[in-house]
Design goal:
By secondary structure, the protein is mainly beta. The protein contains 6 helices and 36 strands. The strands form 6 sheets. It has an 18-stranded antiparallel beta barrel. Strand 30 (494-510) and strand 31 form a beta hairpin. The protein is elongated, with a radius of gyration of 34 Å.
Length: 603
């Protein structure tokens, strides 16, 4: 009996000891949990008001992730409030829509654990804006009494509403958070001069000129730009002017852009005398263009860029034509990419880019002064146009990039530059060149196939070298003397042919002077070519025939805001093809030699 009582007593003591230890353990765990702050997701919330500051009930607020896929959706309550809580770390986009108002969009809203983004949305029938601020979370509280009252009373929106705590939804009064009318304003002014108007094979540009561009953002995501160019041909005395306005808006899934461009110039007196009988009645070349451009993500890996341009050209006749384009980009992963491109009508240099172009303002200025290549057939005005089908595969492996391109090009009303003695070329189908002392012959239509393989190797941080091999189609001429020198006789000698080309390009920047130099040389297996090959290509590695050098030099003491430029095309004057005509000869110019220099001011 005694032994049994002792065992029971020991058992009760052991149980009591276990309970005491359990209590201490729970107390210790409670202290550790109390010492550890509660980890919460990020928060996006805010208020929606009209332009007069009146809260808007029932506005649709859609949240997107970085892949532009919908994540959450909410409706604003009677106070115009909305919120999304528990968001994982990422960059989000937000779109607010409501009947009778223009949508408001904000991109790249950064969310991290425990942070909140407060948005002040102003809806308007013309421009809608979103201002973002990042107030800190205070006291670790998740729901304020204000938000709890909304949850209890706004029953109609409760199923889709998500509210965050400690979110101050009052209208910000700090001047720094108020919408500004103009922001991100920037501008550029260039002054240039040269010898011989620049010819790209698809357009012409005056060899002297002053150009300006000004861009700004209006009330957030509305981008507006205006640019102009006042040019002058030193060889022909051709005054030229061009103006362009562009509007674009940042939106979920795209960034539509609309632009209007006007160009106008007087033609040389020798052309006026030939066509109008008097130099007092100078004919004018006028062009007016309206363009629409946009892009959209079809999936995570596929992006479509597309657009169309409507052109009106007035010179003796009035011509109207349309130039659509589309590019499909497929990200194959592991640094590989596939681009399939179609262009029709005008060339699209903005798709190819340029190694010496830096920024959208410079791209606008380079394209602004490019006039279409015009010619005459049976006394009727014609404009050179091209259809381009192109597929490019590229892959980046370390510091090396490989690319391969196949293309098919069809050119109509090909404008061929011809230089000859006065009176050596007869016929009504010869048009004096607008920007040089040469003449323009309509060479008709031709088609070509081509392919290019390229390897680009980066040599450190400041130098890259590109080697290209390929085959391209172009117009050549039979080695036979001309009898009459008429346009019809010249056209009978022209025909399509393939040529093999090899190109080397070096792109280098001198670190201590910031000098940027791009030099290229293209070699061909035959020198009897009347036109450059594949002029409508959008391949980034495409270069001009012959030796070309471009130098950009920031001037010291101006914080890179003043830059001197020099651009030399076809430095060795290659591709000047002589054609015998009795005791005289004509010269067909594949690519004219040009020299251009200037100063660029940015602010």
């Amino acid at each position: 009996m005694l032994a049994g009582r002792l065992m029971a007593k020991a058992k009760r003591q052991k149980t009591l000891t276990s309970l005491v230890l359990g209590v201490f353990c729970l107390a210790s765990l409670g202290e550790s949990f109390a010492a550890t702050p509660l980890q919460v997701g990020g928060i996006i919330g805010g208020t929606v008001q009209n332009s007069f500051g009146v809260p808007q009930l029932g506005a649709i607020v859609q949240l997107y992730n970085r892949q532009e896929r919908p994540v959450q959706r909410a409706l604003t309550d009677a106070g115009g409030r909305f919120a999304f809580v528990g968001l994982v770390s990422d960059r989000y986009s937000l779109k607010v829509t409501m009947a009778a108002f223009f949508p408001a969009i904000e991109k790249d809203i950064l969310i991290q654990p425990g942070t909140q983004s407060l948005l002040a949305v102003r809806l308007s029938s013309f421009f809608s804006t979103i201002q973002v601020s990042y107030p800190p979370l205070e006291n670790g509280s998740l729901l304020t009494d204000d938000w709890k009252w909304v949850l209890r009373t706004a029953t109609s929106t409760r199923p889709v509403m998500r509210f965050a705590g400690d979110l101050d939804t009052s209208q910000p009064t700090d001047a720094s958070t108020r919408p500004s009318l103009f922001s991100e304003t920037r501008g550029m002014l260039t002054v240039s001069a040269g010898e011989g108007g620049t010819t790209t094979g698809v357009a012409n540009q005056a060899d002297m000129g002053t150009a300006f561009a000004l861009a700004t953002s209006i009330l957030g995501g509305n981008n507006f730009a205006v640019s102009g160019n006042l040019g002058y041909g030193s060889q022909t005395g051709v005054p030229a002017t061009a103006f362009r306005t562009t509007y674009s808006r940042n939106m979920i899934g795209g960034s539509p852009q609309v632009s209007l461009t006007m160009r106008e110039l007087f033609l040389p007196g020798r052309l006026a005398a030939a066509m109008a009988g008097s130099e007092t009645a100078l004919p004018m070349l006028r062009t007016f263009s309206g363009s629409f451009d946009d892009h959209t993500k079809i999936s995570d890996d596929i992006t479509l860029r597309y657009g169309v341009t409507m052109d009106n050209v007035v010179f003796l006749d009035r011509l109207n034509y349309m130039s659509p384009y589309a590019r499909l980009t497929y990200d194959l992963g592991n640094g590989a990419e596939l681009d399939v491109t179609f262009t029709s009508g005008n060339a699209r240099p903005e798709l190819a880019g340029d190694p010496v172009i830096d920024g959208d303002l410079q791209q606008d200025l380079n394209a602004l002064g490019l006039f279409p290549r015009i010619s005459v057939v049976n006394s009727r005005t014609q404009v050179q146009r091209g259809d381009e089908y192109e597929a490019t595969y590229s892959r980046k492996v370390g510091s090396r990039t490989y690319s391969a391109t196949v293309d098919h090009e069809s050119v109509t009303n090909s404008a061929l530059s011809v230089l000859g003695p006065v009176g050596g070329i007869a016929g009504v189908d010869i048009l004096p060149d607008i920007f040089s002392n040469a003449s323009i012959l309509n060479a008709g239509k031709f088609q070509s196939w081509g392919y290019t393989g390229a390897i680009t190797q980066k040599l450190g941080e400041h130098v890259s070298v590109t080697m290209m091999l390929g085959s391209e189609g172009a117009l050549t001429i039979d080695n036979a003397p001309l009898v009459s020198g008429s346009p019809e006789e010249l056209r009978t000698l022209l025909h399509e042919a393939q040529r093999h080309v090899a190109t080397t390009r070096v792109d280098a920047t001198v670190p201590w002077t910031k000098t940027h130099v791009v030099a290229s040389y293209q070699w061909s297996d035959n020198d009897r070519w009347a036109t450059p090959g594949n002029v409508y290509s959008t391949e980034p590695n495409r270069t001009m025939p012959g030796l070309n050098v471009c130098v950009h030099q920031p001037l010291p003491g101006f914080a890179r805001r003043v830059e001197a430029t020099a651009d030399i095309r076809n430095m060795l004057a290659q591709g000047y093809l002589p054609v015998g005509m009795g005791s005289q000869q004509l010269i067909l110019i594949e690519t004219p030699r040009t020299l251009r220099g200037g100063l660029a001011f940015t602010f």
